[in-house]
């Protein structure tokens, strides 16, 4: 897997990409609709593995996301699936770097909260609610914070957040 900065990516984009090369945004659909690089296609990280055969037919694939974590994981996942690492390019940096580098950005409807922020909102609310109900009513409500914490721990270890997957299917995130 190659790694390049947004400034290097800008130089590549000055020329038109050949048809056998793609720019893939591995963020969720809501994040993609809010703003994305011109010419990019949306392929959420959770769907990368199921598209490996299509991606393997390309000569070069440029992956980017919000902070660089999901796109690097996508490249690593595809390498594990047997795709030639020389085809995979991890565009490093934060999504704010796109505009700072002068990349053409398509802006859509502004999302009030990204899916990740919605996950934090739900987790934080359940933790606070669990403590309030436990102190005011019954100690068994402490199971709320316990299960939220266990779910977040699982998401960190496995790299899969089921709350995020659930929220991505909600109509306000499409």
Work out the strand percent.
5-15%
DSSP summary: helix tally: 8
For the biggest sheet, the summary is:
5 strands, parallel
CATH superfamily of the largest domain: Rhodanese-like domain
Low-confidence runs: none
Q: Mind telling me the C-alpha Rg?
A: 19 Å
Q: Order of helices and strands, N to C?
A: EHEHEEHEHEHEHHH
Distance between the termini: 31 Å
Record the strand order, biggest sheet.
Answer: 1-6-5-2-4
In the CATH scheme, what's the topology name of the largest domain?
Oxidized Rhodanese, domain 1
- If classified by CATH, what would the architecture of the largest domain be? 3-Layer(aba) Sandwich
* Structural class by secondary-structure content: alpha/beta
The CATH class of the largest domain, by name, is Alpha Beta
Task: Describe the fold and architecture.
The protein is of the alpha/beta class and 174 residues long. The protein has two domains: 2-107, Oxidized Rhodanese, domain 1; 115-173, no CATH class. It is 47% helix and 14% strand. It contains eight helices and seven strands. The strands form two sheets. Strands 1-6-5-2-4 form a five-stranded parallel β-sheet. Helix 6 (115-136) packs antiparallel against helix 7 and helix 6 packs across helix 8 (162-168).
